[in-house]
Design brief:
This protein is an alpha+beta fold. It is built from 6 helices and 9 strands. Strands 1, 2, 3, 4, 5, 6, 7, 8 and 9 form a 9-stranded mixed sheet that branches.
Length: about 220
């Protein structure tokens, strides 16, 4: 035995692991062959682990209707769709510099972190200290909806949405630059099926992106 080990250059642990793997392969192969002969479907080798995981997570499911990169924890498709629509509506309001139209997306007692506002409470204060310092100075704001991540509470009345966004900023001389960032939004609602309302927002720019943009777009006016 020792000479075999020396000639092969493999350790006892390596050989034992190979034999263990060979035994597992043989067992799986045999069970599949028996299933084919009996005409019964062959269960996945991970079926036991999957069923245990399902019992542990309860109603936690992956939203298979979403693009592959979207991770959804504890969510139903309709809940995720409403979060996605919230980000779509936000995108439209930021692009249009529409502060008034955006207000219903946010709770009046909103709490926020942001580029210009470190820790601010109240939607009006956040609009003045955050939104109005940014929305009119940038262009092409867009949320990457295919990379959205969401978590929804068991009672479906609280949720978290996480997303990357892109935009164009402007240097003081007017030269444009890429302005990507990321956002985490905590949502709430009074009843299942209602639109989500943001209760907390945290927007940050990606590393190395200038914090200040010098664009000058007018605010949307209403009749």
């Amino acid at each position: 035995c020792s000479s075999d080990l020396k000639s092969s250059g493999r350790s006892t642990l390596q050989i034992a692991a190979e034999r263990h793997q060979a035994g597992r392969t043989s067992t799986v192969h045999t069970s599949r062959s028996e299933s084919r002969r009996s005409g019964s479907p062959c269960p996945s080798a991970d079926a036991g682990r999957t069923s245990r995981l399902d019992r542990h997570l309860g109603n936690c499911r992956l939203d298979t209707s979403a693009p592959p990169r979207e991770a959804v924890l504890g969510c139903r498709e309709e809940d995720v769709a409403l979060i996605r629509r919230w980000f779509q509506r936000l995108t439209g309001h930021v692009q249009a510099v529409d502060y008034v139209g955006a207000r219903p997306l946010f709770a009046e007692d909103l709490i926020a972190f942001g580029t210009f506002a470190d820790f601010v409470t109240g939607r009006d204060a956040i609009e003045n200290q955050q939104w109005r310092n940014i929305w009119g100075t940038i262009d092409h704001f867009r949320c990457r909806l295919d990379e959205m991540r969401t978590i929804v509470s068991a009672d479906r009345l609280t949720a978290v949405g996480m997303i990357m966004f892109d935009s164009t900023g402007y240097n003081e001389d007017g030269a444009p630059y890429d302005r990507p960032g990321r956002a985490t939004i905590v949502f709430g609602r009074a009843e299942i099926g209602a639109d989500w309302v943001a209760q907390h927002t945290h927007f940050t720019l990606c590393r190395g992106v200038p914090e200040r943009s010098f664009g000058n777009k007018p605010e949307k006016t209403r009749a």
